[in-house]
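Per your request, structure below.
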């Protein structure tokens, strides 16, 4: 499947002019770190920064609860520290899911731009 997609991309590049082909190359798939950087640079980048700060705080609380969990013998405190760890782990995972969804949204927008570019290139011919 990958080779078929690469072949289609090559056919598209051959049909485009040099300027259009250069623009099409700019729309190429970025790597994981570039995608993550795009999330921070977007309109809601400040929310992602705040979510990462909250995520680090939740992780530190989870580590604190884990240390306290192993240092206590009281059953009620064991349950409370275990629930604290579970809550913090869920909080971190939900915040990370938001970031991954934003990265996926950016991928979908990039693909839509490619489709728009292909349609405009075909309509100009």
């Amino acid at each position: 499947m990958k080779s078929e997609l690469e072949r289609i991309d090559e056919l598209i590049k051959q049909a485009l002019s040099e300027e259009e082909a250069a623009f099409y190359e700019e729309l190429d798939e970025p790597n994981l770190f570039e995608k993550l950087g795009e999330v921070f640079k977007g309109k809601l980048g400040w929310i992602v920064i705040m979510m990462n700060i909250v995520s680090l705080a939740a992780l530190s609380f989870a580590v604190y609860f884990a240390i306290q969990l192993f240092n206590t013998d009281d059953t009620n405190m064991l349950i409370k520290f275990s629930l604290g760890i579970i809550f913090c782990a869920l909080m971190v995972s939900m915040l990370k899911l938001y970031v991954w969804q934003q990265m996926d949204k950016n991928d979908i927008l990039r693909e839509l731009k490619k489709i728009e570019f292909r349609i405009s290139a075909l309509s100009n011919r």
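The chain has one domain: 31-123.

Regards,
D.
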